[in-house]
Specification:
Blueprint (H helix, E strand, L loop, with lengths): L13 H13 L6 H14 L3 E5 L2 H11 L15 E5 L4 H9 L3 E5 L10 H7 L4 E7 L8 H8 L5 E5 L7 E2 L2 E2 L6 E5 L12 E5 L2 H11 L10 E2 L3 E2 L4 H5 L13 H32 L5 E2 L11 E6 L7 H10 L23 E2 L5 H9 E5 L6 H10 L2
Parallel strand pairs: 2-3, 2-4, 3-14, 4-5, 5-8
Antiparallel strand pairs: 1-9, 6-7, 8-9, 10-11, 12-13, 13-15
Helix pairs in contact: 1-9, 2-9, 3-4, 3-7, 9-12
Bound molecules: pyridoxal-5'-phosphate.
The site of pyridoxal-5'-phosphate has 15 residues, from helix 3 and helix 4.
């Protein structure tokens, strides 16, 4: 039976299909002019100096961390063993690059209401070894960046952002993803825009931008500008520069079709965001005073990736029963992101610590439910959800 309230739905029409056709007609499928145009528009839209498109949000996170190992700027450089503070609730590939680069991961509890990192606990978790905070804007909700910046002011601590769930979120008039030294985005299906697979890294730092360009494609010099911060000046000999490898990079380039689709999706993004926020206003109206469920408290202007419902502490409602009820009513639901990530078996490969009990992450892990939001109006779906959950 078709879902009465799906987690996500497609956002494409003939604009995206024509964009794909243009790439097919050009017979040039590998990263080229459409990806370059997308990057320019992306940087412009979010108010960043540079944007680098990659194959996914996960590889955006990978390059963001990798780049910090190759910078000449000592204020930015990370080394194995450096401590990075993260919230205990996020997606797996927020954390994996930290493990892969030998960093020590320090898990901090989330705030029960915003579902972002608890800023009180973050403040207490900082040590002399803390070199970075990887802030995650969860489910569309930006962090309180004023407070975050106050906490790290005067300390040698980098702020990085995983904004893969929160494209278009705004805090104090500024786009989430642009508060950190670098910020990452995802354009996977079900996210705010969809480019098949896709991700992006934004930064205002020129050197990091050049490092990202190099790491994205084989660690070679080919995609670097003639005068660049990785090699200085490139030679004018294209033969010599064609296979010259200067950093231990990857191949995480996006397909040209993703760039072409992305250009069309970015044009639609303001409309998508408007509708997501209208849906959220109705969701808040329906669920703000719910007898046994709590909803996410917005910080700044959320871009509302989806809607969280957390069973209130002390209530005798059991999640399994709610999930069964939703499923019997044809409403799709999921846990809230990873729940308490530090519980996963994969942690045996990590160098990590948990300075204080992850009480809220655990509560959300056991009592949280996620339902989708989308780019079109979901009034009937939300009304139906409220009726099922009454
Ligand atoms: C917080 C967060 N970071 C990273 C990612 C990875 O993005 P992708 O699916 O494009 O690899 C996701 C995926 O949804 C995410 O939620």
């Amino acid at each position: 039976m078709p879902s009465k309230y799906p987690l996500a739905s497609g956002t494409w029409d003939e604009k995206e299909l024509n964009a794909i056709q243009r790439v097919i007609d050009s017979d040039m499928y590998t990263m080229g002019k459409y990806v370059a145009e997308y990057e320019e528009r992306f940087a412009d839209f979010f108010g960043s100096k540079h944007a680098v498109m990659v194959s996914s949000g996960s590889t955006a996170n990978l390059l963001m961390i990798a780049a910090l190992f190759y910078t000449e700027n000592e204020d930015h450089r990370l080394q194995p063993g450096d401590e990075v503070i993260v919230p205990a609730v996020s997606w797996s590939t927020t954390y994996f690059p930290l493990q892969q680069y030998g960093l020590k991961v320090r898990f901090v509890d989330i705030d029960r209401d915003t579902l972002n990192i608890s800023l009180d606990q973050l403040e207490q978790a900082i040590t002399d070894k803390t070199r970075a905070i990887l802030a995650v804007n969860l489910l569309g909700n930006p962090n309180d960046f004023d407070r975050l910046n106050d906490i790290i002011a005067g300390r040698n601590i980098l702020l990085l952002e995983d904004n893969c769930e929160s494209m278009g979120a705004v805090y104090e008039g500024r786009q989430a993803g642009t508060f950190g030294l670098m910020g990452t985005f995802s354009s996977f299906f079900s996210h705010h825009i969809a480019t098949m697979e896709g991700g992006c890294i934004v930064t205002d730092d020129e050197e990091l931008h050049h490092i990202l360009l190099c790491l994205r494609a084989h660690g070679w010099t080919r995609n670097l500008p003639k005068h660049n911060r990785v090699t200085g000046a490139k030679s004018d000999d294209p033969f010599e520069e064609s296979f010259k490898f200067v950093l231990p990079g990857y191949n995480v380039r996006p397909l040209e079709m993703s760039g072409a689709i992305g250009i069309e999706q970015l044009k639609k993004l303001p409309g998508f965001l408007h509708n997501r926020r209208e849906n959220a206003a109705y969701f808040q109206e329906l669920f703000s005073n719910h007898p046994y469920l709590d909803i996410q408290r917005e910080v700044g202007a959320s871009s509302w990736f989806g809607f969280s419902l957390v069973i209130r502490e002390g209530s005798d409602v059991i999640r399994k029963e709610i999930v069964n009820k939703l499923s019997a009513s044809n409403i799709e639901c999921r846990p809230i992101v990873s729940g308490n990530f530090a519980k996963n078996e994969v942690m045996r490969y990590f160098d990590y610590d948990i300075p204080k009990e992850l009480y809220n992450a655990e509560h959300v892990d056991e009592n949280g439910i996620f339902v989708g939001n989308g780019h079109h109006m979901l009034r009937e779906e939300l009304k139906y959800l409220a009726k099922v959950m009454s």
